[in-house]
Amino acid sequence: RDGQVNVTLALRQPGSSIKPLTYALAVERGYKTTDKILDAPISFPQPAPAPPYTPKNYDNKFHGWVTLRQALANSYNIPAIKILNSLGVDNLALFAQRMGITTWNDPSRWGLALTLGSNEVKMTDLAVAYGAIANSGYRQSLTPILKIYNFKNQLIFSARPSPYQVVSPATAYIITNILSDNAARAPAFGYRSYLNLSPHQVAVKTGTSNGMRDNWTIGYTSDYLAAVWVGNNDYSPMSRVASGITGASPIWNKTMKLLLQKLKKPHHFPVPNDIIKTKVCYTINTPDCPQCQIIKTEVFARGAQPKNPCPKPALIKKPGI
């Protein structure tokens, strides 16, 4: 009986693989990759008699002030919870439905842990949601049969996809840019993890549910998307999957390499017209300033890049004046 389970349609917890939807909604609402969130201990009151909700990071550490890029790339839980708290749980649930999640239809089960993957999803739905980001913000239903020919090689059926826009191309690109930033996720995953398919630019996110019952890796290029789940059909926990970088990731890595080996040149995501890349001062979130110590190139929706003037150099008094 266990072998007859179709896991692609089963309800499983997505873990942190659901976080890109939270951040996509945040970017749609005006958040920027350079915005800083304090990753520090926090508790949220719950209706009595429930105790306060006190989220923790997967590594049981706190990382201080982190940018939105760092928070998503390293999959820190507390920043994701804080962002969702500012956006509103109901707004994320409705946004996820728009992106393709069909199983979040019971508001009594929605809470801040929604962004950590507390509510079950179908793998097929998660693929549609990620596909919308991969397709520059256009949602496309899964189409298992593209064409049918009869015995005379005559075309008798041809699918007619009808994609429609669910997020802006700029938002989709910003999320893709973060998920394909190997340097940004290195503190949590290292530079040489299974997620790095250099020289190809590939966007990818992992997820592991509480209790180690579900382990995911979902990633995509402009043309391919691969979603991998590892777990037990009877919902028993796994013993050898310790994090998002094991379990599903090696399978995903091999799958994507097979898909990409036919390419004649390294894959890179096309940059939409409403995206601007500019150098910014990470310490004070301004344009590139001569006195800035940390300068990085960031991506913004056109018109949303930092415009604050550089601070004036501090006046230094000379001795005797």
Task: Give structural notes.
The chain is of the alpha+beta class and 321 residues long. 26% of the residues lie in helices and 17% in strands. Strands 7-8-9 form a three-stranded antiparallel sheet, with helices on both faces. A three-stranded antiparallel sheet has the order 11-10-12, covered by helices on one side. Helix 1 crosses helix 6. The C terminus is likely disordered.
Task: Fill in the keyword field for this structure.
alpha+beta, 26% helix, three-stranded antiparallel beta sheet, 321 residues
Concise synopsis of the structure shown:
By secondary structure, this protein is of the alpha+beta class. The chain has helices spanning 19-28, 68-73, 77-87, 89-99, 123-134, 169-179, 182-189, 248-260, and strands at 36-39, 64-67, 138-139, 147-149, 155-158, 164-165, 203-208, 214-220, 225-231, 275-281, 286-287, 295-301. The protein contains eight helices and twelve strands.
Number of helices: 8
Helical amount: 25-40%
The whole-number mean of residue pLDDT values reads 91
Instruction: Summarize the biggest pleated sheet.
Output: 3 strands, antiparallel
Strand order of the largest sheet: 7-8-9
Low-confidence stretches: 315-321
Q: Which percent range describes the beta-strand content?
A: 15-25%
CA(first)-CA(last) distance: 88 Å
> Helix/strand/pairing class, anyone?
alpha+beta
The SSE string, one letter per element, is HEEHHHHEEEEHHEEEHEEE
**What is the count of β-strands?**
12
Oligomer: single chain
Radius of gyration: 22 Å
Question: Outline, from the CA principal axes?
Answer: globular
